[in-house]
Specification:
Palm domain of DNA polymerase; 27 strands; six-stranded mixed beta sheet; DNA Polymerase, Chain A, domain 1; alpha+beta; 26 helices; seven-stranded antiparallel beta sheet
């Protein structure tokens, strides 16, 4: 027997003689690959049964043994006490041999007399193993067992005992890959490792081969060579950007055509595609494939300023580097003419290199989330906010002896989705226009604080003392939450908030930019993500711990507290100019007054709740919607350094042209920085003149939109879908995640029908860009500062008003639209 310590990379399982074998992939501190095999763990689920069955289990054992799925197979039936929504109950744990038999047995036994319901039958076997064994990626484990055989770079161990040790190690090797396609072929593959190895492979290019490029004799030979390169470098992790639906999908598709296995996994394993719902993911056994785009799209995207989540835009924002400038049509033409090999090779290699560099910033956050929820890097990197919350609750339920509630069935999910919406956050509407000396305040994690303060958990709903029914009653609702026993979800959220506070305190004790500061930042950010998503999880239709009443109660308390703070401010003679869910803007409020206000209001709030002073601004612009109500989260703020922060305007939206955004930005600067309305009007007039005269650059007019699903699944055919289909007609590959750049061109037909891919657009439609881009973007601001038709008619000598300009220079059709915009 040998004992070996290694850090966990991934966990999966295979079947061996009808029994599951858990495979724990890892690395020793010497860099050796370990494949630990645990043959002793078995799948199980729980049965909630009658007292009669609990007293005499023999009849149930006999019936189970006669099932065809159990015939000749080992199984165990044992009593186990567990809590379910706070109530302790005795269950039967049914342990069987084959994980695939659980749904079949559950389906049959739930119809038997005396069996009320089955629980925990819908948890994947390898995920159950990770939960029960308390292991997660990067944790260090000690395995005792005997060596079975050697594999490339290490050993296979038959485990007799496995235990988690202290500490974590994350020194796994990484390889980034990228492919280029043209006319339905993969024409090039690049690879880039964190160890310094990199290269490009291609075929039949027909010119001198640059250094770092390997020339082959065809697509099939290139694919085989790529598989060899992966095995030669033997990376622990493979990173892509949209590799699930593009790079690996194309590689697998082409390999199947040539009837060659995609043999890039460890221990002779092939690439496999897993399916959850409608989502397919590329899995490389023994390695972890992280599609960085998935994590950016689902988790980090909301915190980025990037217009679209392309590799170029995201890389520029996160690591300060972007892609090499080469267009799709250029790659196709260069391939067709067998020219420009170095240009395309550099472009392709740059992409795989960016994937690796991005991974250095993104992987630490995925590690922290994996550690927190106790699941694999592969799975966590593809989870949504609600899924992260759910797997944390599953992990914590297992640790606390709580029954993991079942995933709702389709009809229940549909019923939840069809329920009428409840009232959300409170919006205090300001008087639109310019406000000066603005101070911004924010609640720190308002909704998690409410859950903790009021013990909002399904099992405490309407259960408690008479005192609870009065003092912990939901504002404006008929429900209350008991405080005698802390709720399961309350305790989980409280732990998250406490750990985040501790991490932030430690983080502030280290210099910004240091490794310690960075690690603690990632830790607190992971805790913040899940804590703040907890409120939404209650209302998520697919939630195991779904509670519409809990969600609406949290929202009601949220409205109560923001209104309380607003009244507190008014009573101290502050002018409240805007309030929204968990934020507040006060006018004529200096920094010293703001700090005093925060100090006083926090004495009035519950201990777990805190209002923070965020910043002071010289001025702020707030706007109205077309219906006359104040627009939620649509404002622009000018700070003391001259920096403008914009929320909700076209300037930060992804579906507007650069010309519209820049025009709006210039108008904002003229209004906020210079207080010059005439200049703002002139900016719009000049832009319209530029468009009508045909002097606008095509590059200024590109509208970018991201494709979010296969093209055939779109019911509404918008301009971006039309443009995407035209791309496909030109021989390009368009998949979910692809960013489509298009221009609305002149001609007959609908706007959508005139959307042309930017590479193929020959002209632009000035009427469209004036009516649907420039005017709406500018008038959001100009209307807010009180400019109306009457104001424009009062021309100063030598100056044209915007309205008169519109009447003189634009067609009747546009004038009518302009009139509608003003109305």
């Amino acid at each position: 027997m040998a004992r070996i310590a290694f850090s966990v990379l991934d966990v999966d399982y295979v079947m061996e003689d009808g029994k599951p074998v858990v495979r724990i992939w890892g690395k020793t501190d010497k860099g050796e690959t370990i494949l630990a095999l645990d043959r002793g763990f078995r799948p199980y689920f729980f049965l909630d049964v009658s007292q009669k069955i609990l007293k005499d289990m023999e009849d149930l054992r006999n019936r189970l043994s006669q099932l065809k799925y159990m015939e000749g197979k080992e199984f165990r039936l044992e009593k186990e006490k567990k809590k379910i929504l706070g109530e302790e109950r005795e269950f039967l744990r049914l342990t069987i041999q084959n994980p695939a038999d659980i749904p079949k047995i559950r389906h049959i036994t739930e119809d038997w007399e005396g069996i009320r319901r089955a629980y925990e039958h819908d948890i994947s076997f390898y995920r159950r193993y990770m939960i029960d064994k308390r292991i997660f990626p990067s944790c260090v484990v000690e395995a005792e067992g005997k060596e079975e055989r050697k594999i490339m770079g290490g050993s296979v161990i038959d485990v007799s005992e496995l235990k988690v040790s202290e500490g974590e190690r994350r020194d796994f090797s990484v390889m980034g890959i990228d492919i280029e396609t043209a006319k339905g072929q993969i024409i090039m593959i690049s690879y880039f490792t964190d160890k310094g190895k990199k290269g490009v492979i291609t075929y039949n290019w027909g010119e001198n081969v640059p250094e770092g490029v390997e020339m082959l004799n065809g697509e099939e030979e290139m694919l085989k060579r790529f598989f060899e390169i992966v095995l030669e470098n033997d990376p622990d992790m493979m990173v892509t950007y949209n590799g699930d639906v593009f790079d690996f999908h194309r590689i697998k598709e082409k390999s199947e055509r040539y009837k060659i296995p995609v043999m890039i996994g460890r221990d002779g394993q092939e690439l496999v595609y897993t399916k959850r719902g409608r989502v397919f993911s590329a899995k490389v056994p023994g390695r972890v494939h992280v599609d960085i785009y998935n994590f950016i799209d689902r988790i980090l995207g909301d915190s980025l300023e990037s217009e679209v989540l392309t590799l170029d835009m995201v890389s520029r924002e996160i690591i300060g580097e972007g892609k090499t400038e080469v267009r799709w049509d250029q790659i196709r033409e260069l391939w067709k003419e067998k020219k420009g090999l170095k240009k395309v090779a550099d472009y392709c290699l740059r992409d795989s290199g960016l994937a690796v560099k991005l991974s250095r910033r993104v992987l630490p956050q995925i590690y922290e989330l994996s550690s927190l929820v106790g699941q694999s890097l592969f799975d966590v990197s593809r989870m949504s906010y609600s899924q992260l919350v759910e797997w944390l609750l599953i992990k914590k339920a297992s640790e606390a002896g709580e029954t993991i509630l079942n995933r709702p069935r389709y009809d229940e999910i549909r019923r939840r989705r069809e329920a009428s919406p409840f009232t959300g956050g409170y919006v205090y509407p300001p008087e639109p226009g310019i406000h000066h000396a603005v101070s911004l305040f924010d609640f720190t994690s308002l909704y998690p604080s409410i859950i903790i303060t009021h013990n909002v958990s399904p099992e405490t709903l309407d259960k408690g003392t008479d005192n609870d029914s009065k003092e912990n009653k939901v504002p404006g609702e008929g429900h209350f939450f008991g405080r005698e026993n802390k709720g399961f979800i309350t305790s989980v959220i409280e732990d998250l908030v406490k750990r985040r506070t501790d991490a932030k305190v430690k983080m502030n004790g280290h210099p910004a930019g240091s490794e310690e500061h960075r690690d603690l930042h990632n830790k607190q950010y992971a805790l913040k993500i899940i804590a703040n998503a907890s409120y939404g999880y209650y209302a998520y239709a697919g939630s195991r711990w779904y509670s519409r009443i809990c969600a609406s109660s949290i929202a009601a308390w949220g409205r109560y507290y923001i209104q309380h703070v607003i009244e507190f401010a008014k009573n101290r003679n502050f002018r409240v100019i805007y309030g929204d869910t968990d934020s507040l803007f006060l006018e004529r409020c200096s920094k010293s007054k703001a700090r005093d206000f925060v100090k006083d209001i926090n004495k009035e709030l519950p201990e777990t709740m805190e209002l923070e002073f965020v910043n002071s601004y010289k001025s702020g612009l707030f706007v109205q919607t077309k219906s006359g109500t104040t627009a939620k989260k649509r404002y622009a703020l000018l700070d003391t350094k001259g920096v403008i922060t914009v929320r909700g305007f076209e300037q930060v939206r992804r579906d507007w042209s650069r010309l519209a955004k820049e025009t709006q930005e210039k108008v904002l600067e003229a209004i906020l920085k210079e207080n010059d309305q005439n200049k703002a009007v002139n900016i719009v007039e000049e832009t319209i003149e530029k468009l009508n005269s045909g002097k606008a650059e095509m590059s200024e007019l590109v509208i970018y939109t991201q494709i979010t699903r296969p093209l055939e699944q779109y019911d509404q055919i918008g301009p971006h879908v039309t443009a995407a289909r035209k791309y496909v007609e030109h021989g390009h590959v368009v998949t979910p995640g692809s960013v489509i750049g298009y221009i609305i061109t002149k001609g007959l037909g609908s706007i959508s029908s005139r959307a042309e891919p930017v590479e193929y657009a020959k002209n632009y439609d000035p009427e469209y860009y004036v009516n649907h881009q420039i005017i709406p973007a500018a008038m959001r601001i100009l209307n807010a500062v009180g400019l109306s038709e009457e104001d424009f008619d009062k021309d100063e000598p030598g100056q044209k008003s915007l309205d008169s300009y519109m009447k003189k220079s634009i067609s009747r059709k546009i004038r009518e639209k302009w009139k509608k915009i003003k109305e």
